[in-house]
Amino acid sequence: MKFTELIETVPDYKRFFTVEEMDRRSLALAEKYPDRVKVYEAGKSRAGHPIYVLEIGKGPKNALLFGCPHPNEPIGAMMLDYLSERLASDDSLLSEFDYTWHMIKVIDVDGTKLNEGWFNDSSSIRKYAANFYRPPGHEQVEWTFPIDYKTLHFHSPLPETEVLMRLMEDKKPQFMYSLHNSGFGGVYYYISDDVPELYETFSKLPGLFGLPLNLGEPEAPYLKELAPAIFKLFGMAQDYDYLEKNLGPGKDPASVIKAGTSSDDYASSVANTFSLVCEMPYYYDPRVEDQSEADISRKEALMFNYEKSVESFNFTKEIMNSLEPEIKDRNSPFYRVFKNVLETYPDQLQAQKNWIENDPSLERKAKKAEVFDNKIVSQFYQSLMLGMLRRLIAENNDGSTKLNAISNMADEAFDRKIEYLEENLNYTTIPIKSLVCVQLLAGLNLADYLQRKSDK
I want to staple 253 with a disulfide (CB 3.0 to 4.6 A). Which of 55, 146, 243, 358 is the partner? Predict the structure, then answer.
């Protein structure tokens, strides 16, 4: 593993920087190092906020790195803030690479601002969930790249996505880093293709900071595992095929998906780009890597998860049916989230149920990490939906008896969920420095590998 000497120079961050702070720091860096750093506006967000690109170095190869492809994921923005300063100020580090670095600290500016309520203090899952925002798939920068696949035809990229598309088309990056992170669990990776030379590095890297690998349920049932906690990147075609197989007759997967494909999928169509995603949580419990055998099957664990998901959806539907006549702004980002939930979740849940019932491989005994994911961690993610539901109610609450009653119902459900999690989790809040370091070292080691490979 290379570049570990950088660990000592990463600050011990106590909070996440806001969008405005990130912008100021980028502009100040270019002013401080005018011969080495260029900053320019590559476009504007849907709300009209500038999207800045930092360009550092003059190498013949291009690297494209962007933070906040989902707006609740600012770890990568912090990593890019550190890396940009380090490359600008450190001749020896910059000279180790033949890259011109193109960095966007925050690509989903508008959505990231809606998460800033927890940026000053991410120490508790209650505060995180209460101030959380994540858009529906067709409004996510990562999943709005054009695609034509079977009945799925998506050609409505967001302005933010178009910024990335232009960079991919113009710069044809050899290395691309879409900087995601999860909320709860352990560390895991997605890569464009098999690179066994790096698997030991990826596997050992989290342990340098006392973090576990995520060895429970993968994010999707169709993922190709290349090594423990390392998966092949995927596009929307794979999701389409899963839905086509499991939705049942007469259902069009495109009507459920509504979105486009991934950044990796698009980059690989316009350039010979190798992509990395390094997922990590804000919180973890040691059970996320427990590979001992549980006393139930994986099918039983997954069915528990499914039943809780149905219960969560039914509650959301009940609240939304009552709230619908009171909505003041149907363009509210929170309203658009739940409009999409009501339209697509029933089919998604049916596909999940059909998969669980019909896949014979799920009959085996579950690993305890898989049970933990299905029974506990899944409810952490349900708490985030409840947090957004409360925010939607709050922006429409005029103090009437009806709205106060709806608000009380959502508050009580949120409190019950958080109390359950607090009682059933033994969670640790991970220092921001550790999170930055894992993403930093994973990215630099892959960039170095790709450079050495292309130089042969």
Answer: 243
Is residue 456 over pLDDT 90?
Answer: no
CA 263 distance to own-chain centroid: 13
| 92/119 same-domain check | yes
Task: Check whether 402 has a pLDDT greater than 90.
Answer: yes
> Which residues on adjacent β-strands are paired with residue 43?
51
| Long-range contacts, stretch 379-382, CB < 8 angstroms, 24+ apart | 379/308, 379/417, 379/420, 379/421, 380/125, 380/183, 380/184, 380/421, 380/425, 381/183, 381/184, 382/308, 382/309, 382/312, 382/417
At residue 292, φ and ψ (nearest 5 deg) are -75, 160
Residues 439, 73: contact at Cβ < 8 Å?
no
What pLDDT shows up at residue 455? 81
Same domain, 79 and 160: yes
Model pLDDT for residues 144-197, shown as the tens digit of each residue? 999 999 999 999 999 999 999 999 999 999 999 999 999 999 999 999 999 999
340 lies in the same domain as 383: yes
Do 237 and 254 fall into the same domain? yes
Residues 6+ apart with CB under 8 A from 36: 56, 57, 88, 94
Domains in the chain: how many in total?
A: 2
Same domain assignment for residues 13 and 28: yes
CA distances, 111 to each of 116, 208, 421 (Å): 9, 32, 26
Cα(105)–Cα(53) distance, integer angstroms: 8
Residue 414 CA to residue 409 CA, distance in Å, equals 9
Structure tokens at 399: 């103090």
Q: Cβ-count burial of 69 within 10 angstroms (0-12 exposed, 13-18 middle, 19+ buried)? A: buried
Instruction: Report d(CA 318, CA 406) in Å as an integer.
Output: 10
Whether 166 and 42 have beta carbons less than 8 Å apart is answered as: yes
Give the model confidence (pLDDT) of 312-346 as tens digits.
999 999 999 999 999 999 999 999 999 999 999 99
Segments forming the whole domain that contains residue 118: 4-285+429-455
| Shared-domain flag, residues 298 and 408 | yes
Quickly tell me which residue has 């959380």 as its tokens.
132
Q: What is the pLDDT of residue 142?
A: 98
Query: How far apart are alpha carbons 100 and 30 in whole angstroms?
Result: 15
Is the domain of 443 the same as that of 362?
A: no
For residues 373 and 267, membership in a common domain is answered with no
Q: Summarize the confidence of residues 298-305 as an average pLDDT.
A: 98
